[in-house]
UniProtKB/TrEMBL annotation:
Residues 175-186 have a biased composition (Polar residues). GO terms for biological process: actin filament organization. GO terms for cellular component: actin cytoskeleton. This is Transgelin. Residues 175-201 are annotated as: Disordered. PROSITE patterns: CALPONIN_1 (PS01052), CALPONIN_2 (PS51122), CH (PS50021). Residues 24-139 form the Calponin-homology (CH) domain. Coiled coil: none annotated. GO terms for molecular function: actin filament binding. Belongs to the calponin family.
Length: 201
């Protein structure tokens, strides 16, 4: 991982906002789900206190082994070979294969994260969001095991007849303004002189 150096100005503001979006409790729920599904040990390297902050969270997942194992449990055969070599390019390859597997499983691009987000410990909230989205997709696919997140809704496409669509063109939608209530009917037309009546009205 390249040394990024300290952040200043706008970069620092963006970094602090991203850190503020990270929720440790949600991250712990995500890790527990991964542990329950994969049966892997997800304690931070060199620590016996468990995950204490977002740096620990990133260190647990950055090699991609747990994530690749997770997607293989959800959809067997998604990642044909999980790299176990502790080399940066191999770990990044694991993360890329996990993200491709998520897309194959049904997640949208906006549900995913960038490899650098996890590997360089930036925008770590996006990793938590991705895991919850994956759990929601697992619910939709009726995964036979523990799940998290909100179930992804099934598509409910409406098909209207041509006659029904033509009828809709004759109706003024309320978002265009109401056609009920007060109007300018009976008011003095634009440009006409005001009528001064004898009683002073």
């Amino acid at each position: 991982m390249a040394y990024q150096g300290p952040a200043y100005g706008l970069s620092r503001d963006c970094m602090l906002k991203a850190q503020a979006k990270f929720n440790l409790q949600d991250a712990l729920v995500a890790l527990k789900w991964i542990r329950d599904v994969t049966q892997l040990n997800l304690d931070p390297p060199g620590s016996d206190k468990g995950v204490q902050d977002q740096i620990d969270f990133a260190n647990v997942l950055k090699d991609g082994i747990a994530l690749c194992t997770l997607i293989n449990r959800l959809q067997p055969g998604t990642v044909s070979k999980i790299n176990t070599m502790k080399a940066p390019f191999k770990e990044r390859e694991n993360l890329e294969m996990f993200l491709k597997g998520c897309e194959m499983y049904g997640l949208k691009r906006h549900d995913l994260f960038q490899v650098n987000d996890l590997y360089e410990k930036k925008n770590l909230y996006t990793i938590v969001n991705c895991i919850f989205a994956l759990g929601g997709m697992a619910k939709k696919k009726a995964f036979d095991g523990p799940t998290i997140g909100v179930k992804v809704a099934d598509e409910n496409k409406r098909i209207f007849s041509k006659e029904k669509l033509e009828m809709g063109k004759t109706i003024i939608g309320l978002q265009s303004g109401s056609n009920q209530g007060a109007s300018q009917r009976g008011m003095t037309p634009y440009g006409a002189p005001r009528q001064i009546l004898p009683d002073g009205r």
